[in-house]
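Appendix B, Record 12. Input sequence as logged:
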Amino acid sequence: MVKRCRHARRYPWVFAGLCLLSSAAFADEATAEGPVLNTKGFTLFAGYVVGGHFTDETSNQTIDLRESASFGASLDIPLDDSSEFQVYYGHQSTEFTPWPYPGTSDKLRVDYLQIGGTYFPEELGHGVYVVGGIGATRMTPDAAGFDPATRLSMNVGVGYLLPLSHYIGVRFEARGFATFVGSSASVFCSGGCVAHLTGTAVTQGELMIGLSARFK
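Logged structural output:
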């Protein structure tokens, strides 16, 4: 397993997550009779985000968001024997690339706040699950002359919860996010509009590893 992850130095979060996801898949049979995490609790995530781009209306140039590390947290409350209510927060510090406005910062902060849930097809608190939700994305440029933008967004994903005890578990998760920007508006336009960046929807993918703690 370790030998196969030859490019881990270049993309540490991605390949570490893929290796652990593969390991978790084989752990299902061994833990079938083991503990489950079926009480309310929270999870702290570390991850890696890829994707996302805008269009510069002036030059018609595509401006991407640089892939980077991320972190997040979720609060999970059981609803029944197979599903949970979830509140999720995620954060990424990234950069525009290429950045066509020399003399200004290319950095961008992206924050997700989502409300949704998880569904475990086999058993709540153990094994494979699907996750989804809807909420808002807050995008905050560091450059002077650009205003923060808050837009409607949604997410969908799949994961695997591996309990280590009745109160602690490891979570492996992949999510896709879509932020609805609107093609007719400049996203970060302030009074004088230093630049016009547009895009119908900003889509990103995230691979995460999390530590879950449950309590009664």
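The longest helix spans residues 12-26.
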